[in-house]
TrEMBL record, chains A, B:
InterPro entries: AB_hydrolase_1, AB_hydrolase_fold, HAT_MetX-like. Its EC number is 2.3.1.31. It comes from Nguyenibacter vanlangensis. It is found in: Cytoplasm. Belongs to the AB hydrolase superfamily. MetX family. This is Homoserine O-acetyltransferase. The lineage of its organism: Bacteria, Pseudomonadati, Pseudomonadota, Alphaproteobacteria, Acetobacterales. The active site is at S160 (nucleophile), D330, H363. Residues 47-368 form the AB hydrolase-1 domain.
Length: 391, 391
């Protein structure tokens, strides 16, 4: 169907007309990767760090976000003099394949995005976007790194789904990764996490504005389903302690509640109001089909699966230096999973350190102010830079 | 609006035309309470045990369920020779106020259920059903107990929301409760649990068949929203270990997935299939407005709130014998919350024992086969019966 889409935001990007052969067997072409960089690539091209974003993150790592106007999601970590020091390192952050901030994904026009096409007059992929994997995401990132003429990355760093990409980078392109820092992540997605993602997807499918995934034809957004998905996910990102500390059982008047003063329902708990806000602000910046595509990629992530379940085998012979970080109150990616990764790397005789940060902030701790974590990142990068003999 | 409702199941019940003055200030009349009993009330009327059901349970405790055809939800615990021994005790289980299995609730006709009315020709309460509390539920149960001529209950037992009712029974009618066994429960609903309930409610509101809560006018059911709510709740009832043991990352063909053999999405994880089944079977037996009413009652439960947060005060001077049970892998009602209850009862100089059962089955452990738990129930009741001098 011929369809006029809203004018997209212009994101800095690279276009790869030859595309990418995906793990599912589909050849996706062209492929576009949107990215942002911070700092300066050294003459020796040896100071590049990829930061990989999580499920709902994007490439606007350390600057004002063009849609929300908020500071970048890791502004406290990446910048001049900060733990990931842009006076010293060249930092690249790329929107994942399947995303909705400028990289090829379900919202991309199916006919391609090349200069010879009219991208605003063709049908988007929608639900027919091919299924992608974490490895596909990493291989799309490698196209960018190759074009930048970077033969070896100084480091790859990321939390949550970003950490899955870090592991995939180190497993798939071991000679290109000098140092790897997988944070608050796991070498496989657990049954519980798959279950939560499945509820998210069902919430989106249940929305009347979903229209079988062709919501863009109706100029609609499955906003309520997406908000429910986000609200639920948000609970899993926080610890019970963090929720109790932030909100406890405090109540406030519900502006949409019944006027009857006798009604207990006239007030709501603050945690409800917070979640509703989280849900409604999310739908303004995220595409439902991208959410489905990316959660599926997470669910299929299982680094040992191609190696008879032996998690050490993808890392045999690796010379990459690893620093694995977990947070004590993270129940979505608990320390037990990080520890199984550390053990596998030890079995592979890799150079690996493992740090569990004491925190009551839950999974989101990697995005929040945790001085011990900042010191860990700074220390690992400084030590690795010394070994790599970077400026 | 004059409205024909489907013929309701006939549940054994008592009708109280005088009704009940609810905590919200509304006088609800008449009130009907549906119940089932097992065993025989002794001549001295001293062997009665109330078993309180959880959020989505009902009075069909130890017999085939009239809607689902499945065994009662605690058939393994209640019966002749079982831990709650119906050869010895008279067991009563009542559908909670606000429920949908015969007690007065949102599906009840607003005009009343008395013999002078035509219950199938009047409008149901729906969303205008007054908000109820756990204490209201208990006071409705007391109407039944009074009519049965029982002055003192030998015991009140229940898990999860059932445990909240146990605590409310002991706090509100201390002289009527000889022994109390709150299981897998908490003296207040936590911020995390309120948050999960709020997501459930938003999932129901997001369903196109919700129709502002007047779905019965359209002969509709907000089935997808209710299923999403149930799926999410179901994850919280299990532990991560239990999900991993039951399903791990095993996959199967998705009967509704794309036919494309290249597609990763052609298969689904077994845990997804299981959750979808849980969701779809639930909507056939539960009313959405009841779900909203009862989750709200749980959220408002905070036993210390009327006592400046001092949880011991509702129990000062109590002579009830308490046995508190928690399960080590229950993260919805964790042992820490049970322990705070035990400490409060100790401060109130109550007779209290506290048992944490080692189990990897999560919150649902109280419904499942846990021999240590069975022994605890049997032992506590036997000891208490000796003290109460029951046959």
């Amino acid at each position: 169907m011929d369809q006029t889409l809203p004018a997209p935001l212009q994101h800095e990007h690279m276009l790869f007309p030859e595309g990418l052969h995906l793990e599912c067997g589909v050849h996706l072409a062209p492929v576009q990767v949107a990215y942002r960089t911070y700092g300066t690539l050294s003459a020796a091209r040896d100071n590049a760090i990829i930061v990989c974003h999580a499920l709902t993150g994007d490439q606007y790592l350390a600057e004002r976000h063009p849609l929300t106007g908020k500071p970048g999601w890791w502004s406290r970590m990446v910048g001049p003099g900060l733990p990931i020091d842009t006076d010293r390192f060249f930092v690249i952050c790329m929107n994942v394949l399947g995303g909705c901030m400028g990289s090829t994904g379900p919202r991309s026009p199916r006919g391609g995005e090349g200069p010879g096409l009219e991208p605003r007059r063709v049908e988007p992929w929608g639900t027919e976007f091919p299924p992608i994997t974490i490895r596909d995401m990493v291989r799309a990132q490698k196209l960018v790194i190759d074009r930048l003429g970077i033969a070896r990355l100084f480091a790859v760093i990321g939390g949550s789904m970003g950490g899955m990409q870090v592991l995939e980078w180190a497993a798939t392109f071991p000679d290109m990764v000098f140092a790897a820092m997988p944070i608050a992540t796991s070498p496989f997605h657990s049954a519980q996490n798959i279950a939560f993602n499945e509820v998210s997807r069902q919430a989106i499918f249940a929305d009347p504005e979903w229209h079988g995934g062709r919501y863009w034809e109706r100029e609609a957004i499955p906003a309520r389903g997406l908000a429910v998905a986000r609200m639920m996910a948000h609970i899993t990102y926080l610890s019970e302690e963090a929720l109790t500390r932030k909100f406890g059982r405090r109540t406030r008047r519900d502006p949409y509640g019944p006027a009857n003063p006798l009604s207990l329902f006239g007030e709501m708990f603050e945690v409800e109001s917070y979640l509703r806000h989280q849900g409604s602000s999310f739908v303004r910046r995220f595409d439902a089909n991208s959410y489905l595509t990316i959660t599926r990629a997470m669910d299929y992530f299982d680094l040992g699966a191609d190696h008879d379940g032996d998690l050490s085998r993808p890392f045999h012979g690796t010379r990459t230096r690893f620093c694995i970080v977990s947070f004590s109150s993270d129940w979505l990616f608990p320390t037990t999973q990080a520890r199984s990764l550390a053990r596998a790397l030890n079995r592979a005789a890799a150079n690996v350190s493992f740090v569990e940060i004491e925190s009551d902030k839950g999974h989101d701790a990697f995005l929040l102010d945790e001085p011990d974590f900042d010191r860990t990142v700074r220390g690992f990068l400084s030590g690795a830079a010394e070994h790599a003999r970077i400026g």
